[in-house]
């Protein structure tokens, strides 16, 4: 198990969610908003839109394991975030589509507690933020999901 293997599996699981859009296993940056938006543009159901996700990591903690078969080893607890973007279109109720997408992502992780054996466990997807934001002149739904993952060392 390693941080890079865990991150790769998070991207893999996310990418297998139907119509999730573009996914990146790191935070994307650009000094130009148009370039940033272009990283997330995709056509789904014949509709051009912004729809994508990026994965990053918050601070980690490590501690000794005191119970179970790994007693005497260490556990690293990683907090990953998954930021999501999707174009807003009121006429097609994209808010409901975006929320359904978040539910599909949560379900995909709920049924894969060991992240394809890359981790000991995770504490399920938590949704920290759901709101709309402007990105380079594009009104988008925005979500920040959190996934706390335990790795045995």
Account of the 3D structure:
The chain is of the alpha+beta class and 153 residues long. The chain has helices at residues 3-15, 33-38, 94-110, and strands at residues 22-24, 41-44, 47-57, 61-64, 74-87, 121-135, 138-152. The protein has one domain (3-152): Alpha-Beta Plaits, CATH 3.30.70.1700. Helix content is 24%, strand content 43%. Strands 1, 2, 3, 4, 5, 6 and 7 form a seven-stranded mixed sheet that branches. The radius of gyration is 17 Å and the shape is elongated. The termini are close together.
Low-confidence stretches: none
Supply the number of structural domains: 1
**CATH fold-level topology:** Alpha-Beta Plaits
Mean pLDDT: 92
Tell me about the largest β-sheet.
7 strands, mixed
What's the helix-strand series?
HEHEEEEHEE
Using the coordinates above, name the CATH class: Alpha Beta
> What is the CATH superfamily label?
Phage minor tail protein U
Q: Roughly how much helix do the residues carry, as a percent range?
A: 10-25%
Number of helices: 3
Taken as a percent bin, the fraction of beta residues is 35-45%
**Ends apart, CA distance between termini:** 7 Å
Helix/strand-derived class? alpha+beta
Number of strands: 7
By CATH, the architecture is named 2-Layer Sandwich
Overall radius of gyration:
17 Å
What is the subunit arrangement here?
Answer: single chain
- Give the overall shape: elongated
Quickly describe the structure.
By secondary structure, the chain is of the alpha+beta class.
Write the layout of secondary structure elements.
Blueprint: H1 3-15, E1 22-24, H2 33-38, E2 41-44, E3 47-57, E4 61-64, E5 74-87, H3 94-110, E6 121-135, E7 138-152
Parallel strand pairs: 1-3
Antiparallel strand pairs: 2-3, 3-5, 4-5, 5-7, 6-7
